[in-house]
Fold these 3 entries.
Entry 1:
Amino acid sequence: QVQLVESGGGLVQAGGSLRLSCAASGRSTYNMGWFRQAPGKEREFVAAISWTGGSTRYAASVKGRFTISRDNAKNTVFLQMNSLKSEDTAVYYCAADREFHTRGDYDYWGQGTQVTVSS
């Protein structure tokens, strides 16, 4: 069993930056992902990182602006979000899985953190 707790969301102006954190309980050998869900839309993949940190994947819409990283000593995954746009407004979810992939069927999920970008 893994418990995930996100933090770092908030209100930011377009062009600004935020850094999301996801603290995981238990072992650190899970592959991790970030997903987001905007009002009235389906949840979508944002970024993923393998448990070693050696592999990453990004959605085309955030590539070059967002960076996923992890600190296994602290069981924490980060999502650095730069050059934020109004369309990045969503609830962001951290997720953990035994496989490294971009599908939405991760094993464990956090409760989500709201990110609002004002234009």
Note: The chain has a mean pLDDT of 96.
Entry 2:
Amino acid sequence: QVQLVESGGGLVQAGGSLRLSCAASGSIFSINVMGWYRQAPGKQRELVARITSGGSTNYEDSVKGRFTISRDNVKNTVYLQMNSLKPEDTAVYSCYADIWTTRLMRHDYWGQGTQVTVSS
């Protein structure tokens, strides 16, 4: 069994900052890509940022320069530092991880989602 547990969402004023965390635990052999998606009401889910095990990153265009993704491979944790937040960043943010389990099965796992609300 593998679990992803998120923390760090909440309500913040425009221009403020939040830091999301997502810790993976359980029968983990190795973790490939980790990342964050978001979904706002009435909109499709979109990839916000992703990071490989080697540290290479990709960002959705609207968050470049404002969000930073990082990971701690010892703690099996991925972070999303969100600065200069805008009301349009309001969404449910979900982390995911591409994991090889100890049974050598590869699967994408998802966190439960955390609400980020940015007030104007």
Note: The mean pLDDT is 97.
Entry 3:
Amino acid sequence: QVQLVESGGGLVQAGGSLRLSCVASGRSFSGYNMGWFRQAPGKEREIVAAISWSVGFTYYADSVKGRITISRNIAKNTVYLQMNSLEPEDTAVYYCAATRGSLSFAKAYDYWGQGTQEMP
């Protein structure tokens, strides 16, 4: 089992910045890649960004390229999502998730956090 706990969401002005964190725990965490997803009211969950844990390869949704950066701290089992130039359209609940499969395919993710609300 893998446990994921997000933090860092909140209310921020449009144009501002926010950093989300997700701490992973569990004896079986090793080898999982991490992704950030979001779900806005009335919309389907969509991927924001993902990162391969071992080599740091990254994937970004076209809508966030240039504004959002995903990174990880291997020693802390933590993945981050740095969001800049926030727009009202970024309002959503943000989830981190873990997968041993495809970075960009939501159904490939096996474990999910509880979500954190972000409101620009």
Note: The CA atoms of residues 55 and 85 lie 27 Å apart.
